[in-house]
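RESIDUES AND SHAPES:
===
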Amino acid sequence: MSVNRRLKVAMSLLVRDEVDIIQENICFHAALGVDTFIVTDNGSTDGTREKLEALSRRFNLHIIDEPKHTIDQDLWVTRMAEWLRDNTNVDWVINNDADEFWSTKGSSLPDAIFRDLQEAQVADVGVLNCARFNYLPAVDDIESTGYRFYHNRLKVVKNPVANTIDALDNVLITLQGHKVASRLSGLRSIAMGNHAAAHSGHKIDSRHVTIAHYPLRTFEQFRKKVVNHGSSILHNERFGNDINWHLRGWYKSFQNGLLDVEYGKYVIDHAKQARLIKDGVLLQDNSLARRIAEFDHLRQRELETA
C-alpha cells in the first residue's frame, strides 16, 4: 500500500435477527471511516434483512444471503474476506459482530490501524488483536422506559475473584478474548468467533482500537439469540461441545424452561454492582452511549416519517 493514500478499511458482519442494533452498528462504523461493508444474513425473520437492504442504498454495503442454519461462522466470515479481496481495493477488514462497536480515541478507524502499523516493532503486520470489553446492564437500565442497548454502562475491566461472586457461573462478568482485524493481502482464513486469523504476516496487539461488546440487551433479544444459535449448533457436525459451550448451556436452560433464571444472572442488581465496582471488576462508562445514540435518534425519526 502506498503511504500517499488513506488506508481503506472494510467491515464484515454475520447476522441473524439483529434488527434492534444493526442500523446503529453500520452507521456508527461508517462515521468512523469504514469504507465498505459486507454482511451475511443468516435467514433473519425479524426485519434485519429488510433493514440491510435499506442501508445498502445509503452505504457501500454488499449482502450475502446464507440460509443454512449451521453456524459455520468461520467459513462464512472467510468467504466475506475473500469476496472483499477479489472485488474491492480494500486493504484491511474488521471481522465484526452486530453487538460489537469498534472505536478509537479521537481518530478514524483507518487512521488508528495505520498508527498501529507505524508503531509496530515488526514489518509485514497482517493481524491486529483488538481488546474487547463487555458492557452489561444494571437493573435500573434494563427496566427503564425507553431502554436501548447503549444504556448498558457497566464495563467489565477485571476478572472477579471466586469469592466475589459466583464467578464460574457468570460467563459475562469476565474479561473477553480479543477480536481481530486482518489485512486482506496474505489472509488465509478467519477462525471461529473472529478471535484469530491464519495469515502470512505478523500478529500484533492494537494500541489504538478497542471494542465495546453489548452481549446482553432485553430478555426477548437474549431468548432469540439463544434459540437461534442453540438450534444451529445442534445442526453443525464440524464442532465439538467445546465450541460455543456457553450458548449450548443457555440452550439447555431454554429447553428446561429456565432461561429467565439464566438471564437474571447477568443483569446487575444494586448490591452486586456496588461490590464489583469496589473490587475494580466493573467500571461505570457511558463514553460511547451519546455517540451511538445519535444514530438511534436518526432511526427513530425515520420510523416516525415512514
The chain has ten helices and twelve strands. The mean pLDDT is 91.
